[in-house]
Write a structure and sequence with these properties.
heterotrimer; A alpha/beta; B mainly alpha; C alpha/beta; A: Rossmann fold; Helicase, Ruva Protein, domain 3; 3 domains; 15 helices; globular; B: Rossmann fold; five-stranded parallel β-sheet
C-alpha cells in the first residue's frame, strides 16, 4: 500500500477533515463550476492546500483528476539553454512547480499556458459536466504550486495570461506566503486562507489513522508529542506516525522516541553547537554542515528558519533571543536578495555567535 | 587571443619546415602566406616578428631549464622508438613557456633519427620530405563533419604514422571543447587511443596552455571548463588517470633565462633600436622579465618598445601575468609583501583579471578566511567578514559590470581591513587554500535532483502520487525510504514465518492480513535515503575523485523517466497483483485488530541475519485468526 | 442600406452580451458610460466636458492612485467623442505592462499614429462631435521604459495633427519630463467615502445584493479608496454567499476574502506585546502563522492600531514606524513571514521594555 499520508488523504470535498468553514466555501464554489474564479490558496506547509484544491477539482470534473500522468517537457531559454520540467497533468488539469524552473519561469509560464489555452476543451460529455448541461465548463485548471517563488517577471506574465485566457484557463495558485504575490494577481483571485489543523485536530486525525492501521497507541500523549513536533504540518505528522509505528512494531508507547527527518536533527545539533561552542573553527564546522544541507536541496530559507527558532528556544536570556531573531530577520531578507545562500547562512551563524558572546 | 597567437607561431614554424604533402595543409599554408603578406604590408620596416626570427632552431636553443628539457626528451624518445607504454604525453603550463617549440624541435631531431633507421630496412626513400611533427588543425575541416568527428578522423588517419613515415602528433589546437558533446567526443577519442590494442602507435603529444577564463555568465561559475581551462576540465579525469598518459608540468619561464634571451636579441637587433632606447634596454628588460613569464609576449613587448616611438620609461606592454585565484586570496587575507599600502594593493587586484570570476573569488574568500592564524582570531572579525560577503552577494543581483565590480570590491576591502587590524601570527604559516566547495555542492544538488526524479517517477508509476520537489526534499526523501525499508524488512521476516506454516489456507490468510507489508518490493521501491545520508561536505580538491557524480549528473529527466518506466514494467509482471486486489476489499471490511507485537528492543540494523528472522518468525505477527474470531 | 445593416448588428449585440454578463467582471459592467457618471472627479470632468464642446483636445496625462477612475474617464470620453462604431478605428488602447518595449512604441504606436483619420459616417456625425484625430491611450504608462518614453516624444510631435495621446499612470514622477510637459495634466484624487459609498450602493442595488450593516463601509475601508478593488471585493463576496441561505454578505466573509486579520486577533497580539513576555509572544506569533494569516496583512493592521493609539508617545511611534517599515520591506523582498513577524513583535516589545 502507498504511504499512509496518501492513503488517508481525503479525495472529495465531503471527506475533508479539519476546517469546516473552508469546506463550505469550496462546496459553494463547486455548485456552479462555470463561475469558478481564479483561486489563491494560502497557508502553511502541510495544511492541506493541495488536498483541498484537488477535492474541489474532483467535485467539478469527476474522479479523473486523480488519473495523473507525468510528462517531461523541454523548453529552450533565450540564452539557448535546455530546460527540462516535470509537468503533471490529468485530463482536466495541469500542475506546475515554478521552483523547478529557476529564473526562466516566465518563458515556461508563457509557452506552456499559451499551449494549454489554445487547446479548447471539447470533451464535455462525460462526468458531472454532462449533468449540468452541455456547455458546462470548457476550461482547464492550471495549478501552480509554490506560487510565491515565481519571479516578478513571471507574475506579470501570469497576470496578463489570466486576463487573456480567462475563458479557457482557470488558475489555482498555492502559496505559503502572500507577501510575494503582486497585488494585481491577488486582486484577480479569490483568496482562500487554509489554516493548519489545530493541535487537537491533528491528534484526532492521527488517532483515526492509527486506529485504521491497527496501531496500538498506549496513550494519546505520544500523539500530542507528534503533533507538537510537527507544528500543524499534517503531512509531516502522518509520516512521523507511520515511521514510528513501523519502527516500534505497530505499538506506540509513551517512551517511543520521536522520529524527525535527519536534516532537522542536524540543524538542531548545529543550533546547539552555535550556543555552546563559539569559536571560528566551530563556524568552519558549521559551514560543512550547511553545505551538506544545501547539497540535499534543503531550501536555505527553511534552514535559517529552523535554525533561528531552535536558537531562540535554546538561549535563556531575553536579550539574546531578541538578538537572534533580529539577525535572522536580516539574513533572511538577504537570502532572498542574493543568490548564494551559503554567505548568508554562515553570516547568520557568525553574527549569532558574536551576539551570544556579549 | 593567446590561442591565436600560439597557433600563429606554430603555423609560422611549420612554414619554415617543408611543405606538407596533404592538400588541405597546402591550403592552410597559402592562407598563412596571405596573412603574412598583409602584415608585412602594414609594417614594412619590421618584416618579421622577433619571436619568430629568433625562435629556437635546435633544442639546445630553447629558453628552458635543462632539466625540464631532459624530462621531456626522456619520455618522448622511447615513445618515438616505440618502446614506451606511454601513449600520450601531456604538457601543461601557462602560455608561452615553450611547450610546443620544445616538442617540435625534439621531434625534428629524434624522428629523423629513428625514421631513418626503420626506413632503411624497407629501403623506402622519398619520405624525407615528410614532416616530423603533424599538428591537428581544429579550424580547418570540411563542412558537414562535426568537430569531434574531425578530431577522431585525424587520429584515425595518423595512427599509421609509425615505422617509415614516423611522426610525432602534436595537438595544440583543440576542437571546440566548450561544447559538451564535442568535449565528450574528444575525450572518448583520446580514451580509445589510450586503450588501443595496436602495439605501435605514433607518439601523441598534447600541449595545453592552462588558464583561468573569465566566465561571461554569472550563474555558471562552477569549477568547470568555463572558468578553469586546465587539464582536469579539458581532458577529464578518466583520461588523466589512465596509465598510458604521462604529464609534465611547465612553469613560467625562468627569469634569468628569459633575461638572457632578451638581452641576446637586443644585441643582435641593435641597429633597429630607435634612438636613445639602446641605452635603457637593461632597465626595460628587467622590468619585462619581472612581470612576465611568457617568452612570446616578452619578446613582442621588447620589439614594440625598441622599434616604436614609445617613451623610454613607458609601462611595459607584456601580457599581464594573471594572478591566480589562490594568490589573490592570499594577498587579500594576509596583505602583499611587495606592496605595503593595502589600498594600492586592492586597487591593483581589482584591475588584474584574476578577479573577474566574482563568485568564485568571493566563495574562495568565504572558504579560506577562517584559515587566518589557524582559526585564532576574534569572532567579531569573522562576523564582519561573513557579513560583508553576505551583503555583497545582495549587491551583485543587478547584472551590470559596474555593480559586479563594486560587489567584489566591497568584501575584498572589508576582509583586508578586518585582517589588517588583527595582528598576523608570525608563527603560523599560510595554511593550504581550498577551491570553494560551491561547485561541488552544485554538482551534488544536481545529483540529488536526479535522485529525486527517480524517486518521484517511481512513486508516480507505482502509487499514482505526485509530490512536489520541495516536499520530497524536505520530507519524503527521508521518511518514505525509511518507512519502506522497515516494511521490506517486515516482509522478509513474515515470509520467513509463512514458509514455516503448513496449511496453505493459513498462509493465504496471513498474506491477506498483511497485504500492505507485502506490497513493498525492494526491487522497485527506493529503500535508502534519497540523495544519500547527510554527512559533511568537506573542502578540498577531490571533486575529481567522485566519478559517479559525473555520470549521474548528466542524465536528463527524460532518461530517468524512461528508465523508471521500463523498470516498472518488469515489476508489474513479477508482482502479486491478485493479492492486492483481494486485500483492498478485505481491509474495508476488517474491524480494527490489535497487533499483539510486543516491544522486544531488537535493533533492526542487522537485517540479513537468518537466525534473526527465525526469532522474529517465532513471534506471531498480525494473525488472521484473531481477525476471524472478532468477526 | 448601410443603416439597416448596422441596426441589425446592434440588435444581436446585446444578446451576446447578456450571455457573457454573468461572468463579466462588475468592474467592466459598471464602468461609467458617460463622463458625467464618473464619480468624484468634478474638476477633471468639467474641464473635459468643455473640450467635448470645442472638440479640441490636448495630449493628456492622467495620474492618481489606482481605482480612481482614470481609465474609466478616458474610455467614457472617447465614447462620447466618437460613438460606439467609430471608437474601434479611432482609438488604440494599450494597457498591459508587458508589451511596452521600445519596439512597440516604434511599430505599433507609430503605425497607428501615422494612419490618416478615417471618415465618420453621417449618422455618427449627427450624434457625436467626431473630431478629426485619433486617440492613443497608454495605460500604466509609468511602467514604460525611459527609452520607450523618449521614443514616444518624437512620435507625439510628428503626428500631433492627427493623433492625441492620453497617458495614464499612478506616479507622475515616473514619466520623463519632456513627455509630461507636452501633456496637460489631470490629477485624480482618492475617492472620498460618500461618493464611493453611493457607487457601491448603486452596484449592490443593481445586483440586488443582501448584506449586513456596515459591510459596504468595511469594503471601502479595506480597499482604501480604490473603487475597482472595492467593486471586485463586492463581486467575489456575492459569489461566495450566492448559494447560502440566505445569501447575505457578512463582515466575516469580506474579512476572509480580503485576507484581513480579525481585529480580536490583532488586539490579542498587541496586548501580548505590551505584556513583554518574549516566549509568550513567540508562541502567539507561531499560532498566527499556523492559522495561515498573511504576514503583510498583520503588519498593516498592527501599523493601523499603533498609529491610531492615543496613549503612545510620538517618540515611540517614531521608532515603531521604522520597525514596521523595515518589516514590510523585508516581507516584500520575500522574507520569511514567521521570522519577520516574530522580529517585529519582539522589537516592539523591546520598545515597551525600554519604557518608551
Amino acid at each position: 500500500m502507498s504511504l499512509w499520508v496518501d492513503k488517508y488523504r481525503p479525495k472529495s470535498l465531503e471527506t475533508l477533515s479539519h476546517n469546516e468553514r473552508l469546506t463550505h466555501l469550496l462546496q459553494s464554489l463547486a455548485v456552479e463550476p462555470r463561475d469558478l474564479p481564479h483561486l489563491l490558496f494560502y497557508g502553511p506547509n502541510g495544511a492541506g492546500k493541495k488536498t483541498r484544491c484537488m477535492s474541489l477539482l474532483n467535485s467539478i470534473f469527476g474522479s479523473n483528476v486523480y488519473k495523473l500522468k507525468i510528462d517531461v517537457r523541454q523548453f529552450t531559454t533565450p540564452s539557448n539553454r535546455k530546460l527540462e520540467l516535470n509537468v503533471v497533468s490529468s485530463p482536466s488539469h495541469l500542475e506546475l512547480t515554478p521552483s523547478d524552473m529557476g529564473n526562466n519561469d516566465r518563458i515556461v509560464i508563457q509557452e506552456l499556458l499559451k499551449e494549454v489555452a489554445q487547446m479548447e476543451q471539447v470533451d464535455f460529455q462525460t462526468g458531472p459536466a454532462a449533468e449540468t448541461g452541455g456547455l458546462a465548463h470548457r476550461y482547464k485548471c492550471v495549478i501552480i504550486n509554490e506560487a510565491d517563488s515565481l519571479t516578478r517577471d513571471a507574475q506579470a506574465a501570469l497576470r496578463r495570461t489570466m486576463e487573456k485566457y480567462s475563458r479557457n484557463i482557470r488558475f489555482i495558485l498555492l502559496c505559503e506566503s502572500m507577501s510575494n504575490i503582486i497585488a494585481p494577481i491577488k486582486s484577480r483571485c479569490l483568496l482562500v486562507r487554509t489554516p493548519a489543523p489545530s493541535a487537537q485536530e491533528t491528534v484526532e486525525i492521527l488517532s483515526k489513522v492509527a486506529k485504521n492501521e491497527r496501531v496500538s497507541v498506549e496513550n494519546d500523549s505520544i500523539l500530542h508529542a507528534i503533533s507538537e513536533n510537527c507544528g500543524g504540518n499534517l503531512r509531516k505528522a502522518i509520516l512521523t506516525l507511520e515511521s514510528m509505528a513501523l519502527n516500534n512494531e505497530m505499538a506506540l508507547k509513551i517512551t517511543s522516541p520521536l522520529i524527525r527527518p535527519d536534516w532537522v536533527v542536524v540543524i538542531l545539533k548545529m543550533a546547539n553547537r552555535v550556543i555552546k561552542d563559539r569559536t571560528v573553527s566551530s563556524i568552519v564546522e558549521c559551514r560543512s554542515i550547511l553545505y551538506d544541507l544545501l547539497a540535499h536541496c534543503i531550501p536555505a530559507k527553511v534552514i535559517i528558519q529552523e535554525l533561528a527558532f531552535a536558537l531562540v528556544q535554546g538561549v535563556p536570556k531575553d536579550e539574546h533571543k531578541k538578538g537572534v531573531i533580529y539577525w535572522a530577520s536580516i539574513f533572511d531578507e538577504r537570502l532572498c536578495l542574493g543568490n548564494k545562500p551559503i554567505y548568508h547562512l554562515e553570516g547568520f551563524i557568525a553574527r549569532v555567535m558574536c551576539e551570544l558572546e556579549s | 587571443m593567446k590561442r591565436t597567437l600560439s597557433s600563429l607561431s606554430s603555423q609560422i614554424n611549420e612554414m619554415r619546415g617543408t611543405v606538407s604533402p596533404k592538400d588541405n595543409d597546402t591550403v592552410a599554408v597559402k592562407r598563412q602566406n596571405l596573412s603574412l603578406e598583409r602584415s608585412a604590408f602594414k609594417r614594412p620596416q619590421a618584416a618579421e616578428e622577433w619571436c619568430a626570427k629568433y625562435g629556437p632552431v635546435h633544442s639546445t636553443d630553447l629558453v628552458l631549464h635543462k632539466r625540464k628539457l631532459r624530462d621531456v626528451r626522456d619520455l618522448l624518445e622511447p615513445m618515438i622508438r616505440g618502446e614506451s607504454s606511454c601513449r600520450i604525453l601531456l604538457l601543461t603550463g601557462p602560455a608561452g613557456c615553450s611547450k610546443s617549440s620544445c616538442i617540435k624541435l625534439l621531434a625534428e631531431e629524434l624522428v629523423t633519427q629513428y625514421r631513418w633507421k626503420s626506413a632503411s630496412t624497407f629501403s623506402v626513400s622519398s619520405n624525407s620530405g615528410d614532416p616530423c611533427c603533424i599538428e591537428y588543425d581544429g579550424s580547418n575541416f570540411p563542412l558537414g563533419v562535426s568537430k569531434g568527428d574531425h578530431f577522431d578522423q585525424f587520429l584515425m588517419e595518423s595512427r599509421y604514422r609509425t615505422g617509415s613515415n614516423l611522426a610525432v602528433l602534436l595537438i595544440e589546437d583543440l576542437p571546440n571543447i566548450f561544447n559538451l558533446s564535442t568535449r565528450t567526443q574528444f575525450q572518448q577519442s583520446l580514451l580509445r587511443w589510450l586503450c588501443n590494442g595496436e602495439p605501435h602507435l605514433p607518439p601523441l603529444v598534447i600541449s595545453l596552455s592552462e588558464c583561468e577564463l573569465q566566465a561571461g555568465d554569472n550563474s555558471n561559475n562552477t569549477f568547470g571548463i568555463d572558468t578553469q581551462f586546465i587539464a582536469e576540465t579539458v581532458l577529464g579525469f578518466e583520461v588523466l588517470a589512465h596509465p598510458g598518459l604521462q604529464r609534465i608540468k611547465f612553469n613560467p619561464i625562468n627569469k634569468t633565462l628569459l633575461k638572457k634571451h632578451l638581452n641576446d636579441i637586443s644585441i643582435r637587433e641593435q641597429q633597429s633600436f630607435t634612438p636613445r632606447k639602446w641605452e635603457h634596454r637593461g632597465e626595460f628588460v628587467s622590468s619585462v622579465v619581472e612581470h612576465c613569464g611568457d617568452i612570446r609576449s616578452a619578446t613582442g613587448a621588447l620589439q614594440l618598445w625598441a622599434t616604436s616611438s614609445l617613451p623610454i620609461f613607458s609601462k611595459n606592454h607584456t601580457r599581464e601575468q594573471s594572478i591566480s585565484l589562490f594568490q589573490s586570496l592570499g594577498r587579500v587575507m594576509y596583505g602583499s609583501s611587495d606592496i605595503t599600502d593595502d589600498n594600492q594593493m586592492v586597487n591593483d587586484l581589482m584591475l588584474s583579471n584574476g578577479l573577474n570570476m566574482n563568485d568564485v573569488f568571493k566563495l574562495g574568500l568565504l572558504e579560506n578566511y577562517s584559515a587566518f592564524n589557524k582559526h585564532d582570531f576574534p569572532l567579531r572579525s569573522a562576523a564582519e567578514i561573513t557579513g560583508s560577503l553576505s551583503l555583497s552577494d545582495t549587491m551583485s543581483v543587478e547584472f551590470s559590470a559596474k555593480s559586479l565590480a563594486e560587489a567584489t570590491e566591497y568584501p575584498l576591502r572589508a576582509v583586508r581591513d578586518t585582517f589588517s587590524r588583527n595582528k598576523k601570527d608570525e608563527r603560523s604559516s599560510h595554511n593550504k587554500s581550498y577551491f570553494p566547495r560551491d561547485s561541488k555542492v552544485r554538482k551534488m544538488c544536481r545529483n540529488f535532483e536526479v535522485d529525486v526524479d527517480k524517486f518521484s517517477y517511481t512513486t508516480m508509476k507505482r502509487y499514482g502520487c505526485w509530490y512536489s520537489f520541495r516536499n520530497v526534499a524536505l520530507y519524503f526523501s527521508y521518511f518514505a525510504p525509511f518507512i519502506r525499508k522497515r516494511r521490506n524488512f517486515k516482509k522478509k521476516s513474515l515470509q520467513h514465518y509463512i514458509s514455516s506454516l503448513d496449511s496453505p489456507s493459513d498462509r493465504e490468510a496471513l498474506i491477506a492480513a498483511n497485504s500492505d507489508i507485502f506490497e513493498c518490493d525492494e526491487q522497485v521501491d527506493i529503500l535508502s535515503r534519497v540523495g544519500g545520508d547527510l554527512s559533511l561536505v568537506t573542502a578540498g580538491q577531490d571533486a575529481f575523485g567522485e566519478r559517479d557524480l559525473k555520470s549521474r549528473y548528466t542524465s536528463s529527466k527524460t532518461l530517468v523517466l524512461q528508465r523508471v518506466v521500463a523498470q516498472n514494467f518488469t515489476f508489474n509482471e513479477v508482482s502479486t497483483g491478485e493479492l492486492t486486489e483481494v486485500n483492498v476489499a478485505d481491509e474495508l471490511l476488517d474491524p480494527i485488530i490489535n497487533s499483539d507485537d510486543e516491544d522486544d528492543g531488537i535493533s533492526f540494523e542487522d537485517e540479513d541475519d537468518d537466525t534473526f528472522y527465525d526469532m522474529l518468525a517465532s513471534q506471531s505477527p498480525r494473525k488472521p485468526t484473531t481477525n476471524s474470531t472478532r468477526n | 442600406m448601410s443603416e439597416g445593416f448596422f441596426a441589425k448588428r446592434q440588435k444581436t449585440a446585446p444578446k451576446q452580451a447578456s450571455n457573457i454578463d454573468d461572468s463579466k467582471p462588475w468592474v467592466e459592467k459598471y464602468r461609467p458610460k458617460k463622463l458625467e457618471d464618473v464619480a468624484a472627479q468634478d474638476h477633471t470632468v468639467t474641464v473635459l466636458q468643455k473640450t467635448l464642446k470645442s472638440a479640441n483636445l490636448p495630449h493628456m496625462l492622467f495620474y492618481g492612485p489606482p481605482g480612481t477612475g482614470k481609465t474609466s474617464t478616458i474610455l467614457a470620453l472617447t465614447k462620447e467623442l466618437y460613438g460606439p462604431t467609430l471608437v474601434k478605428s479611432r482609438v488604440l488602447e494599450l494597457n498591459a505592462s508587458d508589451e511596452r518595449g521600445i519596439a512597440i512604441v516604434r511599430d505599433k504606436i507609430k503605425s497607428f499614429a501615422r494612419l490618416t483619420v478615417s471618415k465618420p459616417s453621417t449618422s455618427d456625425l449627427e450624434k457625436y462631435p467626431c473630431p478629426p484625430y485619433k486617440i492613443i491611450i497608454l495605460d500604466e504608462a509609468d511602467s514604460m521604459t525611459s527609452d520607450a518614453q523618449s521614443a514616444l516624444r518624437r512620435t507625439m510631435e510628428n503626428y500631433s495633427n492627427v493623433t492625441r495621446f492620453c497617458l495614464i499612470c499612478n506616479y507622475v514622477t515616473r514619466i520623463i519630463d519632456p513627455l509630461a510637459s507636452r501633456c496637460s495634466k489631470f490629477r485624480f484624487k482618492r475617492l472620498d467615502s460618500t461618493n464611493a459609498l453611493s457607487r457601491l450602493q448603486y452596484v449592490s442595488s443593481q445586483e440586488s445584493l443582501q448584506y449586513e450593516d456596515n459591510v459596504l463601509e468595511k469594503i471601502l475601508d479595506i480597499s482604501e479608496g480604490d473603487l475597482r478593488r472595492a467593486i471586485m471585493l463586492l463581486q467575489s463576496s456575492s459569489k461566495i454567499v450566492k448559494h447560502l441561505e440566505p445569501p447575505v454578505i457578512s463582515n466575516l466573509t469580506v474579512d476572509e476574502l480580503a485576507g484581513t486579520v480579525p481585529s480580536d486577533l490583532i488586539s490579542t497580539l498587541t496586548s501580548k506585546i505590551a505584556g513583554m513576555d518574549f516566549s509568550d509572544i513567540m508562541k502567539f506569533v507561531a499560532d498566527l502563522e499556523r492559522s495561515g494569516w498573511s504576514g503583510s496583512a498583520v503588519v498593516n493592521q498592527l501599523h493601523e492600531y499603533y498609529i491610531n493609539n492615543e496613549q503612545l508617545t510620538s517618540k515611540f511611534k517614531n521608532k515603531l514606524s521604522w520597525l514596521i517599515f523595515d518589516t514590510d520591506s523585508k516581507l516584500t523582498n520575500g522574507g520569511n513571514e514567521h521570522i519577520q513577524l516574530a522580529n517585529l513583535a519582539i522589537s516592539v516589545a523591546d520598545l515597551y521594555r525600554k519604557g518608551m
